[in-house]
Design a protein that fits this description.
Belongs to the TrpA family. It catalyses: (1S,2R)-1-C-(indol-3-yl)glycerol 3-phosphate + L-serine = D-glyceraldehyde 3-phosphate + L-tryptophan + H2O. This protein is of the alpha/beta class. It has a single domain, classed as Aldolase class I (TIM Barrel, Alpha-Beta Barrel). The chain has twelve helices and nine strands. It has helices spanning about 5-20, 40-50, 70-80, 85-95, 110-115, 115-125, 145-150, 165-175, 200-210, 225-230, 240-250, 255-265; strands spanning about 25-30, 55-60, 105, 130-135, 155, 160, 180-185, 215-220, 235-240. The chain has a nine-stranded parallel beta sheet. α10 links the parallel β8 (about 215-220) and β9 (about 235-240). α4 (about 85-95) packs parallel to α6 (about 115-125) and α10 runs parallel beside α12 (about 255-265). The termini are far apart.
Length: about 270
Amino acid sequence: MTATLTRGAERLHAAFAGAKAENRAAFIPFMTGGFPSAAGFPAVADALLAHADILEVGIPYSDPLGDGPTIQRASEQALAGGTSTRRTLALIRDLRARHGTPIVVMTYVNPIYAVGPREFMRLAQEAGVDGLILPDLPPDQDLEIADLAAEHGLAVTFLIAPTSTPERVKLVAEACTGFLYAVSVTGVTGTREGSALSEVPAMLVLARQHARVPVAVGFGVKDAATARQVASVADGVVVGSAFIHAVRDGQDVGALAAEIAAGCGR
């Protein structure tokens, strides 16, 4: 696997640099593609993009092992409504026609292989995707995905966790071309009660010894206070389940995004 600086990587790095120049961490909201429905997704995404430095869109998948019940249920709802991998990429293409903000796709590897790796990358490139987050693909087991992504201008992002060994952190950090995704806690996605971010600073010290890309932190960030805690040590703040909850509860997603984005300041 060859780490290649692609057009997508350049756009992502520019987004992080722009946030840094304003003395804040990049705000990276997440939303499941096709949630709450294919028709309702664009308005939710537009509300998030009004405040985002980078938007993360999840490909709905029937067996999302790294996701907690909130995102699992959102994927189930999107799939039940007919949102497929191809439909998600079409929704992103429509977003790209209205927004210049970088967009990354979070996908497990099975949807890529179901479409076909080369065809998936072609569709992602045509949709205007800038990068891929690959939660279940260890870079040392990736025989073609990252190189195919680079051929199509897409950056790749892999994950580390508090349980990652120094050797594993080095391997993953050096393989990332978009940004390095640091999982704040051991476990699955979701908002948490109390402070679940105590292990982040030490993990980032280790990550930055090897990362040549920005480092973003996700899992457990739910409001301005937890965003501020992460922003004090990370280059980016990823927030997902809180927005799924907001959509489900009929809350103002844009207002919540504005609140959390303000919390990303330093």
